[in-house]
């Protein structure tokens, strides 16, 4: 096997980002949960936390955060769980708008989603 | 007669004494006879006269006999005295000559002989003694001295020759020890063959020294070759293991992206084990003079460095990192620094209780970046600390100084020596041991002019963010399209919230291109080779931003190559 002359990615592994955890304690997060940061990043925070807090000045979906951080969704959920536990962010599901009644049913949305995927 | 000399002196007056005695005797006899004859009666007178006559005759006869004898003795005594005088004269003469011989002749002869004359020549001008014994004495003296002188000279010559040879030998040995062998060993260590080293070495004059030199040099060359061959074989074999570990890590990272929560934990465990294997193989490879398994072509921020280091040790969960520094380590030194810190942290974790934390602090100082690793284990003994200090000092980078299985600190020493890092041990205020690592400024990445906006953004991304805008204007669509490492996501990824901190032309382009989503999740195709990355880039360029790109004004080859080179970096997969 030919060895690459240089490495291009990041030297750290994902388990050092999560501190060895592979599963978030916060079960309520899914891909479209909206996250809003409640405070500014402080000195000494993990860089991913800082990024999330900056990113979530406006409500941002978990999946967007994951894409932005270039991290697997599992890892992002763990990180968000940390921030949630310390109260630095709040998470809310986009349910309320559905409760209004004029939004389409989630079943319909799912169908649309499936249709979109099939495109 | 037996002693002629002594009585001779007294006989001479003795010759006259008998005559006087004879006259007195005769007178007394005559007088006595006359008196007797006168006194004697007439009748007896004839008788008396007769007796007196006879007595006188006897006396005369006796006297004559005595006189003659005395006369003879006197003569003998005289001749003896003469002879004695002659003898004494001769004895004196001989004595004088002997003295002359001893005082002047013999020294003179000896002098000539010492000057190198032959015995005959030395004796030529000398007075020859009359006595045959003295003559023989002189001759034998001359010959003896001559032969002794000859022997002495030859012995001296031999001694001088021996001393000269001994000196030459000593000089040769000195030269051998001081110049020849060190020079030859230096060349051999530099990789020269025994023949080359021997050809450049002046051949010692002494045959045995020459043989010795050749023998030593050949033996040293053999052992040097043996160790070099062992090292080469070791590094070659290890490099395969290293490559396998790196590719396994890349695969694992890919799987972590692809699979969900259910296997994520297992993948992380495998990832961790593989990282530990990587540390072990890198340790051996570095010790054997090989290379680390990875190399970085960009600055790596300190947080990533610490995580990279900590991720390679078994007890990474016990390590608490306190890193508020935005500094990045230059790419060339990043892997070395990471390995060095990993070894030190591993050491600290291994020698502290399994429930205690190991704290790692990063501070920025004018002298450089100071990383302090503190454990709360048992305080090291002074001797152990000295040993550790010595091992990490990098003074002895020779494998010969390795102690058993304590390889980690030796590698730390090697790396510290290579990069000019100072590593020192001290007792920790927390009860255990502290290691202070000073990373000198030349290992730190240059802060670029564009860096200030990064001050707002967390430190971690500062260096990379400066690259992304640079890539942006030149080839905006390409980098964003496929995999970009975490840091660059800021620049390329999101349009909304981060737009303020990102140049607009970069911010606007790419996110849609990245969103080639199949299942609602962002999928980042990861090329593992340059060729694949290149193809991916082409695809991305064609697919998403191809058309507008084509419309851009033509660029010269240098600019396009530079753009390609820059864009390649964020595009290639991270692992």
Q: How would you characterize the overall build of this protein?
A:
Chain B: Residues 531-541 have a biased composition (Basic and acidic residues). The complex is a heterodimer of chains A (119) and B (575). Chain A has helices at residues 14-18, 47-55, 62-69, 73-85, 95-99, 106-118, and strands at 34-37, 60-61, 89-92. Chain A has six helices and three strands, in the order αβαβααβαα. Mean pLDDT of chain A is 82; it is low at 1-5. The longest helix of chain B is centred in the first third of the chain and has 70 residues, at 45-114. Chain B is 65% helix and 6% strand. In chain B, helix 2 runs antiparallel to helix 3, helix 5 packs parallel to helix 7 and helix 9 packs across helix 10 (331-350). Chain B has a five-stranded mixed beta sheet, covered by helices on one side. A two-stranded antiparallel ribbon of chain B has the order 1-3. Mean pLDDT of chain B is 76; it is low at 1-14, 449-516, 525-531, 545-554 and 571-575. Among the domains of chain B are: 5-114; 295-443, Heat Shock Protein 90; 462-571, no CATH class. In chain B, a hairpin with a 5-residue loop joins strand 6 (422-427) and strand 7 (433-439). At the A-B interface, helix 1, helix 2 and helix 3 of A face helix 7, helix 8, strand 1, helix 9 and helix 10 of B.
